[in-house]
Amino acid sequence: MDFFETIIKNKRYNSFQSEESLNHDQLKQLLACAQLAPSLSDIQNFAYIIVTDPSLKSVISEKIANNKIDIINAAVIFAVVVVRDEKDDKNIIDAIIASNQLMLAATSINLGTNLIVDFDESVEEILGLTAELSIVGLIPVGIAVDKGHQGLKRSIVDLAFHNSINTRFSFD
Questions:
Q1: 165 in the Ramachandran plot: left (φ > 0), alpha (ψ -120 to 50) or beta?
Q2: Which of 55, 69, 93, 160 could form a disulfide with 169 if both were Cys (CB 3.0 to 4.6 A apart)?
Q3: Which CATH number fits the domain 3-147, given the four candidates 3.40.50.620, 3.30.450.40, 3.30.1540.20, 3.40.109.10?
Q4: What angle do CA 139, 140, 145 make, to 5 degrees?
Q5: What is the SS3 assignment for 19?
């Protein structure tokens, strides 16, 4: 799949096919794409916990605020972990940029993903995190069952300004 097809196909998927798994080469490929992401801090102060245990996925699923998302059957859930830094958001920004690349890589091999940021803080304890670490997102990855949701998108004209916020960019 070419890059633009991947971008267009990239959606939020809320349910996944059961009994599917990712092999180690696929996991390594997805993580390599995350690792190659640009970094503001150049230290990549984040990590991923790869959750594959069905009972653990079930417990985490119960901690998600939006019960319309069924992650139990995802092949894997990546818990995106950052080093907490109350004075600087670079770790979080780096983790999200890298996670976006991971999600695009999954999309390019016909897997569905979602970035879940609304979950109970007890997930951190369940996954054994210490006080200096924090989960900023959960990314289920697997064969999607639903059609996916792109969400509302503003027009390009509404997004683009020329030289200042007071002048819209003209595409004419």
A1: alpha
A2: 160
A3: 3.40.109.10
A4: 140
A5: coil
In 9-164, the DSSP E strands lie at: 46-51, 76-83, 112-113, 133-142
* Domain boundaries along the sequence of the chain: 3-147
Here the tokens at position 157 are: 């004209």
As a 3-state breakdown, the chain gives helix, strand, coil percent values, each rounded to 5, of 35, 20, 45
The pTM assigned to this predicted structure is 0.91
Per-residue pLDDT tens over the stretch 6-38: 998 999 998 898 767 889 999 999 999 999 999
Residue 86 confidence (pLDDT): 80
Neighbouring C-alpha atoms within 13 Å toward the C-beta of 139: 30
